[in-house]
C-alpha cells in the first residue's frame, strides 16, 4: 500500500469545494505554484487565480505558497497574489512544511496542501499531517525529471483509483 495518497483529488484549483474544506476545519491553505496555481513557464493566466485567492482570503482562509522554485520566481508570484511564501521548499522535506505552519500560524490538522505532484506536494503534506488535495497539472509542459516522476505517479494513482475521493 502506498502511504502517501492524496486525501482528495480535484480537476484544478477552481474546482475544489473550499466550503467543504472549511467545514472539515481547514483554515490554512498552502498552494504549490507551478502547474497548480499557474501554468509552468507562463504568466498569462493570473487574473482568474488572483480572483480565487482574493475570494478565499475574504472567506477567512489564511493562505501561503510553497514552491521548490527559486526565491526570485516564488517571491514574484507570491507578491502578485499578496500571500506569504516559502521558496526552495525542498518538498517533500518536512522542514519546508514546518515553515508553512509557522507562516500560517495554525496546527497541521487545520492546514491543507494543494498541489499537482504526488511525490512532492502530497507526500510532504501527508508526512507533515496536512490534509492534501491533489490537482491535475494545468499542462504537460514539464521538465524531464518531472515527466519521469509522472510515470510512477500515474501507476500509483491508477492502482488506487477507487480509493481517491473528489472534493
Ligand atoms: Mg507543481
For the structure shown, list the relevant keywords.
single chain; 167 residues; alpha/beta; Rossmann fold; six-stranded parallel beta sheet; 6 helices; 6 strands; binds magnesium ion
Describe this structure in words.
The chain is an alpha/beta fold and about 170 residues long. The protein has one domain: HAD superfamily/HAD-like (Rossmann fold, 3-Layer(aba) Sandwich). Helix content is about 40%, strand content about 15%. It is built from six helices and six strands. The chain has a six-stranded parallel β-sheet with strand order 1-6-5-2-3-4, sandwiched between helices. The radius of gyration is 14 Å and the shape is globular. The model has no long low-confidence stretch (mean pLDDT about 95). It binds magnesium ion (MG).
Q: Quick one: overall form?
A: globular
- The CATH superfamily label reads HAD superfamily/HAD-like
Share in helix: 40-55%
Question: Roughly what fraction of the amino acids lie in strands?
Answer: 5-15%
Q: Helix/strand/pairing class, anyone?
A: alpha/beta
CATH class: Alpha Beta
What composes the largest sheet? 6 strands, parallel
Strand order of the largest sheet: 1-6-5-2-3-4
Total DSSP E strands: 6
CATH architecture: 3-Layer(aba) Sandwich
Question: Average pLDDT value?
Answer: 94
Number of helices: 6
Give every kind of bound small molecule, once each.
Answer: magnesium ion
Q: Report the CATH topology name.
A: Rossmann fold
Total discrete domains: 1
- Global Rg: 14 Å
The poorly predicted ranges are none
Amino acid at each position: 500500500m502506498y502511504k502517501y495518497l492524496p486525501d482528495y483529488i480535484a480537476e484544478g484549483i477552481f474546482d475544489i469545494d473550499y466550503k467543504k474544506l472549511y467545514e472539515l476545519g481547514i483554515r490554512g491553505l498552502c498552494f504549490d505554484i507551478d502547474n497548480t496555481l499557474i501554468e509552468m513557464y507562463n504568466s498569462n493566466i493570473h487574473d482568474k487565480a488572483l480572483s480565487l485567492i482574493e475570494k478565499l482570503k475574504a472567506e477567512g482562509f489564511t493562505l501561503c505558497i510553497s514552491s521548490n522554485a527559486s526565491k526570485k520566481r516564488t517571491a514574484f508570484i507570491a507578491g502578485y497574489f499578496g500571500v506569504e511564501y516559502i521558496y526552495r521548499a525542498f518538498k517533500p522535506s518536512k522542514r519546508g512544511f514546518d515553515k508553512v505552519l509557522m507562516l500560517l500560524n495554525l496546527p497541521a490538522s487545520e492546514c491543507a496542501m494543494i498541489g499537482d505532484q504526488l511525490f512532492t506536494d502530497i507526500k510532504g503534506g501527508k508526512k507533515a499531517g496536512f490534509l492534501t488535495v491533489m490537482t491535475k497539472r494545468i499542462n504537460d509542459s514539464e521538465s524531464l525529471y518531472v515527466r519521469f516522476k509522472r510515470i510512477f505517479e500515474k501507476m500509483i494513482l491508477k492502482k488506487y483509483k477507487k480509493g481517491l475521493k473528489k472534493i
